[in-house]
Design goal:
Elements lengths: L10 H4 L11 E7 L5 H15 L5 E7 L4 E8 L6 E8 H4 L5 H12 L7 H10 L4 H16 L12 H23 L1
Parallel strand pairs: 1-2
Antiparallel strand pairs: 1-3, 3-4
Amino acid sequence: MDDQPQPLEDDLIADSHATAPVNLPRVTITFCTQCKWMLRAAYFAQELLSTFSTALGEVSLVPGTGGVFTVTIQHASNVNFTTHTSVLWDRKVNGGFPETKQLKALVRDVIEPSRDLGHIDRALAKERGDDGQGQEQEQEQGEEREKGQTGESQGGQGSCEECKEEKEVESVLSSVSVRVKKLI
């Protein structure tokens, strides 16, 4: 019998360059686990899969830290045989979380631009037609939702330091904004 020790890993597993197939278009939702945003990410994933079903190749949830909440889409190019990754939403850049209808419209614009989303398109058109007031109101609603779902109900426990600092900055900015509006 052979006294040679058997390798513990399969050659395929040991290969650090092994790849897994990716179904395109692929939406990736990266969320902060410290901020307890997994349910929000899962809800968005469920909504996208329900709306776009077979038009989406896959939706993935990626845990992260540091107050991150980003939605990206990887899709094939129509011009050549390459893939492109686009950021659809970044909480830190866009300020808060997207409305479900906004996120669906952003995904639709990439994967099926001619698709009609029915009541979602009508609601978005109505908001855009409110002389910009819809966007301001939407941002305020997003901030209130964010405050209600960042772990504040637990006395701030479990929130990451970056999120706490962002909340302080947002609080100062909102008070300055209120003062400026009063002056105008």
